[in-house]
Each structure stands twice: as C-alpha cells, then as structure tokens.
Design a protein that fits this description.
single chain; 42 residues; mainly alpha; 2 helices; 29% helix; 30S ribosomal protein THX; Ribosomal_bTHX/bTHXc/bTHXm; ribonucleoprotein; ribosomal protein
C-alpha cells in the first residue's frame, strides 16, 4: 500500500501511469464555431 502498489494513486504516480485511481484531467473541447471562425453576422 505504497509506491510499489500499482492499484493505489501513489503507485500510479510513481510508475507514471493512469487508471481508475488516477484520472487524467479532462480538457474541454472548444465549440466548432470557434475553431472554424464562421462569420454569422450579416
């Protein structure tokens, strides 16, 4: 139950892996309108 234990958060940090105990941060996707830069005003 420490750095050597792969099932714990500390063990995941030590190994540099991710899983249920250590989630990745979710990046919010930009709306499609922002990416394409569509001019909606006429």
């Amino acid at each position: 139950m420490g750095k050597g234990d792969v099932k714990t958060k500390r063990g995941k940090i030590n190994r540099g892996t991710y899983g249920v105990r250590r989630r990745r941060k979710i990046r919010k996707r930009r709306p499609v309108e922002e990416q394409v830069s569509v001019d909606t005003k006429k």
